[in-house]
Write a structure and sequence with these properties.
The complex is a heterodimer of chains A (219) and B (109). Helix content of chain A is 68%, strand content 0%. Chain A is mainly alpha-helical and 219 residues long. Chain B contains four helices and no strands. In chain B, helix 1 runs antiparallel to helix 2 and helix 2 runs antiparallel to helix 3. Chain B starts with 7 loop residues before the first helix and ends in an 8-residue tail after the last helix. Classes of the chains: A mainly alpha (219), B mainly alpha (109). Chains A and B meet through helix 1, helix 2, helix 3, helix 4 and helix 5 of A and helix 1, helix 2 and helix 3 of B.
């Protein structure tokens, strides 16, 4: 399949930028900068989607992913406002710092070994599959995807599952609301004790309040 | 003649590297927000492999683009629920490092 050198160059450049900015997400201490690095890694990813003739997916990547989800992250980070270095600082004491470093080393070794083992497998397995080039006119465009999703909606399983995403989002909204209303267990118990309607409670005779000589019949 | 770069194995290797970078971040970072960001990096790699497979192997239908939409829907819900959990944890513990928070329900000694 003939590919123009411009496409090759764009692919290589965006791959390098994606890898570097994703590594920066993992390595940078400051959470706000890490989020901005993740947004930066989404831009060449969107360019890559354009190369893969997925124009609507590229638009979604920018609008929804970088525009909405990452803004949510940024809002929460600015709300919590962790200090630049404290967010990742290991706990006090040299031993904890060493254990954090050791965890990073173990993770690096395990994941690097997995990558070294898997990448030749990927090239071996995917190298000799037959490439079936894109033959559909308007592949990846809004019109084509809309036809895929909503054509003949009574018999189209994709339509039903697409509408079911809205239920998933509804469940997420309810869960987030529930979390934001819930307080800590201690505060909740104190508040329930404080707000208990005391006058409605029956007076249970105890050893202190009962008349001397009375028989306490507690179950 | 330069070698072909824009091929299916290269796209898959790129997405595999993204997933591994994200997994490394999940292992390495201590802040819960940073762990969620690393999960987003992993999701990004998975989405890239979906779209690459659709371009190189199934050029007659955009089913993987639809799967991408499903994935970002799930990612949005996961980010919303995870971030609200982080806010609740921050209210209760005044700290979001996983070493302080992860106790599996037992009280701190």
């Amino acid at each position: 399949m003939p590919v123009s050198p411009l496409v090759e160059f764009t692919f290589a450049l965006s791959a390098v930028v994606i890898l570097i900015s994703s590594l920066a997400v993992v390595l940078i201490k400051n959470p706000v900068r890490a989020t901005l690095m993740l947004i930066l890694s989404f831009l060449p990813t969107s360019l890559l989607y354009l190369l893969l003739q997925a124009s609507f997916v590229a638009v979604l990547q920018i609008l929804v992913y970088a525009g909405a989800i990452m803004m949510l992250f940024t809002f929460v980070i600015m709300m919590i406002n962790p200090s630049p270095n404290e967010g990742d600082a290991p706990m006090a004491g040299n031993e904890s710092a060493w254990s954090g470093l050791r965890g990073a080393l173990v993770g690096l070794v395990v994941i690097g070994a997995a990558g070294i083992l898997i990448i030749p497998l990927v090239y071996h397995a995917a190298g000799d599959v037959a490439v079936q080039p894109v033959s559909k006119p308007g592949f990846g465009g809004l019109d084509s995807i809309a036809r895929l999703l909503f054509e003949d909606p009574a018999n189209n399983p994709l339509t039903v599952s697409f509408e079911l995403i809205s239920f998933l989002i509804l469940v997420g909204v309810i869960a987030a609301l529930n979390f934001s209303r819930r307080k800590g267990a201690e505060a909740l118990r104190e508040e329930s004790i404080r707000n208990r309607p005391t006058e409605a409670l029956p007076v249970v005779p105890s050893r202190e309040t009962a008349a001397p000589g009375a028989v306490l019949d507690r179950k | 003649m330069m070698p072909h770069l824009f091929t299916l194995p290269n796209c898959l290797a790129l997405s595999l590297l993204l997933v591994l970078i994200g997994a490394f971040g999940v292992f390495r970072r201590h802040s819960l927000i940073m762990i969620l960001l690393s999960v987003e990096v992993m999701l990004n790699g998975a989405n890239l492999s979906l779209v690459a497979f659709n371009y190189f192997r199934w050029g007659t239908s955009e089913t993987s683009h639809y799967l991408y939409m499903l994935a970002i829907g799930v990612a949005a819900v996961e980010a919303a629920v995870g971030l609200s959990m982080i806010i609740v944890l921050f209210k209760n513990y005044n700290d979001i490092t996983r070493d302080r928070v992860a106790r599996l329900g037992e009280r701190a000694a």
